[in-house]
TrEMBL record:
InterPro entries reported for this sequence: ANL_N_sf (IPR042099), CapK_Type1_Caps_Biosynth (IPR053158)
Lineage: Bacteria, Bacteria division TA06
PANTHER family: CAPSULAR POLYSACCHARIDE BIOSYNTHESIS PROTEIN
Transmembrane segment boundaries: none
Organism: candidate division TA06 bacterium SM23_40
Protein's name in the database: AMP-dependent synthetase/ligase domain-containing protein
Gene3D superfamilies cross-referenced by the UniProt entry: N-terminal domain of ligase-like
């Protein structure tokens, strides 16, 4: 990414020195993963199968939770001879893991070793606690760096990472970040009021941005001269709003990688325009740092199938191309607290399209949102929150919005408007929402002065009391 190869090689040397000094091990794994980019589809599938078999053997002998579940299903690892057998293994929910945490779900030989406890940033569910070790931590970094490579940033390149950093990072982490040219900015306090920044059509600086902090961060980013900026969509949009409002110049990354939240088309266009950079969508989670990512062709997200088995399940079977289903993940490398056929709680659309970039990793079409953020229309039709967000984000006079579904046949669209809002805007919005949900649903529009923000700070568009199980294909509360 940096035009000067000498300085790039210097930074690579610094990276190695940082690893030696801090005892981290990232580069070797990163390079091994990158080498998989040239494998063919059959080779990747064979590698995946080989890792899966070893994983199943291991968890059966070392993790009481999975051993019990396999036994209940009447399957031993030896019985898993093909993908059909694998699909007979029970699905694992967040609730199952919570009930068994920690002694039942952590590998027995790791229980009394030094482990790091992490907590997910659940938006609709209570957070999940899980543990990793330093090796898994570094593997997560290598997995993320490997996909950032697809966005044109190679190991040791200057980058900026934005996100709500909850835990205090120790001296070793700070030293490593400093030596490896990574600037980490904590965005927990970047936005101040209770209105979420979910309208990228917004061209003024929303009053909820902490302007002093945004200015400080922009100056730090400009001084860092990063090739790549990586962060939550909300935080990237907050900086974009500040840059546009103040005319701040000096931030010119080649690539912006958005993660942790849904990247809608209007948000992508806005980030592209303001940062003047190519925008890449990365799908990851606290438990799985990089699951799938766009390549330079932007033809969907490549699943990192050398590291995970990712299934998209609808109605108890694999979703067909074009169909939306629930994402179910098996981490092929995690031996500390394994996740096997784990229902992460996201919905995605399946595709059998191939990418022209030459990488054989399969594609998924898009991450459509949390499975708990699905509007279920009468008759069982599913509409993901993202569909509503795309309509609302295109309306320049809407500052913030939320969809509330209290009954299966009723939807309330709550909006915070700008002074330029008129009743004609309201009519046009209602028309578009009604066209989306169909005639058998009553839609109301409410103008509200403010919207309370989710404490997890992830954008959340939909608040629904109608619950739907995509995997099972049924409503279980309405
Ligand atoms: Zn590709």
């Amino acid at each position: 990414m940096d035009p000067d190869p000498q300085s790039r090689s210097f930074r690579r040397t610094m990276y190695r020195a940082a690893e030696r000094l801090t005892g981290r091990r990232i580069e070797a794994t990163y390079r091994a993963l990158l080498a998989h980019d040239t494998l063919g589809a059959d080779e990747i599938r064979a590698l995946q199968w080989h890792k899966l078999k070893a994983l199943l053997e291991d968890v059966y002998s070392s993790v009481p939770f999975y051993r019990r579940r396999f036994e209940e299903a009447g399957i031993r690892p030896d019985d898993v001879r093909g993908w059909e057998d694998f699909r007979r293994l029970p699905l694992t929910s967040k609730r199952d893991i919570k009930a068994a945490y920690s002694h039942e779900v952590v590998a027995s030989d790791r229980l009394h070793t030094r482990l790091i406890e992490r907590v997910t940033t659940g938006t609709t569910d209570a957070p999940l606690r899980f543990v990793i070790d330093t090796e898994m931590f570094d593997l997560g970094v290598a997995r993320a760096l490997r996909v950032l490579d697809w966005a044109g940033s190679t190991l040791g390149d200057r980058m900026v990472q934005l996100g709500p950093i909850r835990e205090r990072r120790g001296l070793q982490h700070r030293l490593f970040a400093h030596m490896t040219q990574r600037l980490v900015l904590d965005t927990l306090a970047l936005t101040t009021s209770s209105t979420p920044l979910c309208c990228p059509a917004d061209t003024s600086v929303p009053d909820q941005i902490d302007l002093d902090r945004a200015g400080r961060y922009c100056r730090s980013i400009a001084a860092q001269r990063p090739g790549l900026i990586y962060g939550y969509v909300t935080d990237l949009l907050a900086l974009a709003a500040y840059i546009e409002h103040t005319g701040f110049t000096g931030i010119r990354p080649r690539a912006v990688v958005s993660s942790a939240e849904i990247l809608t088309d209007p948000a992508r266009r806005r980030l592209e325009t303001i940062f003047g950079a190519e925008v890449f969508d990365l799908y990851g989670a606290t438990e799985f740092p990089a699951i799938a990512c766009e390549c330079e062709v932007h033809n969907g997200l490549h699943v990192l199938s050398d590291s995970y088995v990712v299934e998209i399940i609808s109605d108890g079977r694999d979703a067909s191309p074009g169909e939306t289903g629930e994402v179910v993940i098996t981490d092929l490398d995690n031996r500390v607290m394994p996740f096997i056929r784990y229902r992460i709680g996201d919905a995605a659309r399946a595709t059998d399209r191939r990418c022209s970039c030459g990488r054989s990793f399969p594609l998924i079409d898009m991450i459509e949102g949390r499975t708990s953020e699905v509007v279920v229309a009468p008759g069982g039709r599913l509409l993901l929150a993202r569909r509503f967000a795309t309509i609302l984000q295109e309306m320049e006079d809407v500052r913030a919005f939320r969809i509330v579904q209290e009954r299966i046949d009723r939807l309330d669209v709550q909006i915070v408007t700008r002074p330029s809002w008129t009743s004609q805007h309201g009519e046009s919005l209602l028309q578009r929402i009604r066209a989306l949900v169909g005639e058998d649903m009553e839609v109301t529009l409410s103008q509200v002065p403010d919207l309370a923000v989710d404490p997890s700070r992830k954008e959340r568009y939909l608040y629904s009391s109608v619950e739907y199980d995509i995997v099972g294909g049924r409503c279980y509360r309405s």
